[in-house]
Amino acid sequence: MPKLSKNRTKVDETVDRSRKYTVEEACALVKKAKFAKFDETVDLAVRLGVNPKHADQMVRGALVLPHGTGQTVRVLVFAKGEKEREAREAGADFAGSDDMVAKVSEGFMDFDRVIATPDMMGAVGKLGRVLGPRGLMPNPKVGTVTFDIGNAVREAKGGKIEYRVEKAGIVHARIGKASFAEGALSDNAKALINALVRAKPSTAKGAYIRSITVSSTMGPGIKIDPGQFIAGGEEG
Asked: Which residues form a coiled coil (predicted)?
């Protein structure tokens, strides 16, 4: 695809591979580096100085990004009675109890986030083989197992993301779209990085934030200087 190669080459020339940018500079470059006709997704990759093989160094959590993700999230809720009604009123796309468990076990997968009330987890646990590999299994650590269903659904719809360190020690997460304003992207990036700083395990030794890279779907990776987050802990 010569046109794609030409565009990519032109874009690559705008990024200094040897330089580490500020969050604001990197987010501005991400927008300039966009060349696809669709609205590219912007992702952040943060390499942490942890060993995920050790349970006490597993970094995971969730947060609501200040400006959302730009993604339409389809939410499925496992709940009964009043809580099922609460879920629907809050905007859940799908809600139900044993009937919904059966539907998912039969192959229904048209959803992006799963939330469940604690009393439904016995039944939902049977779907582990289906939901687990896709990262959809509800978990109290990230707020997706809760009786506060209405708030959980609204947060999921409003831009709540989950993050979890992978085997290689890297956290990948969506922070928006290339169409976002530069300030919105940088706000979202800082919110995620600060959340990771706060989640630092006490057993983690040496440098914690090893590297930070931001990129769009088709664009090049742009390195961010982690110094501002390492030195002061938190950056507004």
From this structure: none
Of the candidates 228, 205, 211, the residue with the CA atom closest to the CA atom of residue 44 = 211
Cα 151 from Cα 62, distance rounded (Å): 14
CATH class belonging to 15-68+160-231: alpha beta
pLDDT in tens, 42-95: 999 999 999 999 999 999 999 999 999 998 999 999 999 999 999 999 999 999
Chain centroid to CA 215: how far?
14
The pLDDT, as a whole number, for residue 155 is 94
Q: What value does the mean pLDDT take over residues 145-170? A: 94
Q: What beta strand segments (E) does 65-185 contain?
A: 75-78, 94-96, 113-116, 160-164, 170-177
Whether the CB-CB separation of 54 and 69 falls below 8 Å is answered with no
> Distance (Å, rounded) from C-alpha 196 to C-alpha 95?
32
Max CA separation in the chain (angstroms): 58
Question: What residues does each domain of the chain span?
Answer: 15-68+160-231, 75-158
Taking alpha carbons only, the member of 234, 212, 228, 170 closest to residue 30 is 212
Model confidence, pTM: 0.80
Looking at residue 220, the DSSP 8-state letter turns out to be: P
> Can you identify the CATH homologous superfamily of domain 75-158?
Ribosomal protein L1/L10, domain II (3.40.50.790)
